[in-house]
Specification:
about 0% strand; single chain; 6 helices; about 70% helix; mainly alpha
Length: about 140
């Protein structure tokens, strides 16, 4: 259960203490969902993009993984395996973001702009989560 407390501390550092990032992301998620639910001129609707939420699961996965392997790389001579796994997560995230943006490229223009902006914000979240996670794995704080 100690990893849950570490996760909450890391989540606070990476996400909640940024100030503007959380409200901006929540507003964009809401606006993008609303834009995707607007009817097209032919009367059809775009399906609700569940993969949109996947963009925010990778940063959370970074923090959960770092909380579970907290201090594992402390005093290691080379890169510990948790650091290598943590460094692979941005590749997973970039692949997911590119796939999502490509999949919804025919969405209404407002929704597509929202998806592009959410993709950029999720990259900011990932960068913050990766940085905090990397510090947690080696237990060396800047």
């Amino acid at each position: 259960m100690a990893w849950a407390h570490r996760f909450l501390d890391l989540f606070r550092l990476a996400i909640l203490d940024t100030g503007w990032l959380l409200p901006a992301t929540l507003a964009l998620v809401g606006a993008t969902i609303l834009a995707l639910r607007v009817r097209r001129p032919d009367g059809s609707r775009e399906s609700l993009p569940l993969p949109l939420l996947w963009l925010f699961l990778v940063p959370i996965a970074c923090l959960v993984f770092a909380a579970c392997t907290y201090g594992f790389g402390k005093g290691a001579d080379g890169q510990a395996w948790p650091s290598i796994v943590l460094n692979l997560l941005p590749l997973v995230h970039a692949t997911l973001a590119i796939w999502l943006i490509r999949r919804y490229r025919h969405a209404p223009p407002m929704a597509y702009v929202g998806l592009l902006t959410l993709g950029a914000l999720s990259l900011v979240w990932l960068g913050l989560s990766w940085f905090v996670g990397a510090m947690a794995i080696v237990d060396d704080w800047v």
